[in-house]
Request: fold
Amino acid sequence: MLLRLKWQMAASDGDLVAAFLNEIQEDPTLEADLVEDITSTFTDNVQHWKFPEEHKLSSPLTDALECTFPELVNSVYRAAVGLRRVRAMLIGVNVRLNLRGAHRSMGEALNLVIGELELLSLAGEHVATDAPLRSSFPEEEDDGRGPWSSPAGEPLSPKQIVWLADLCRKHPDSSIGYADGISAHSTPPQLVTERIKARKDRLIRTQQYREIEEQMRKAMAQSCPRCNSAPGEFCRSRAGKETTMHKGRYTMAAG
Reply:
């Protein structure tokens, strides 16, 4: 419960958190130890969190929903809760159906979401508390590549952050906080870069399809030099059956 509450407080306005803490401190039905745990979770921990936020990272993408990291974690948590509810509903639906496959698929999806939630939560705390991370991966040191925290670096995944934090605890000689590490470069998030490229590729394909359709329209407006099909008629094979457009008809339209 405290883990969930921690991220809810991190995503909330400071005044709302203060009002919540005052409310539970005045609630006589709550145990004093629980109230103290909740209060210290914020005052000793969440209150001091700081994320290296950069606004408009995804501004070129109209389908992106800009949010803070705590808001993201809370949304993933709600997704897990929603999947648990769906699994219970699959069991309780009032129509006789064999839903074992759907229940199994939802279970697999839930396990994936929970796994990502755990990584996001742990990595997020490392980032928010500026926990020391190993400044480079072992393989980068071996093959001479620039470390992730160099101008040639790029953003890390939650799994990489957790791993580098663990490596740093074992080898604390070379460490850096995540905010300082990514300040060495301006590489965009890989997911944003991939989505921008995919959108450009999609626009190019759409334009190519339009050009092909226009050329096909022009070709259909002419007779075919091979099978003599009249304008507006489909090309025909030697047997007289409709066939795909002959190359000569298409290229003649292009010229």
User: Anything to note?
Assistant: The mean pLDDT is 92. The radius of gyration is 29 Å.
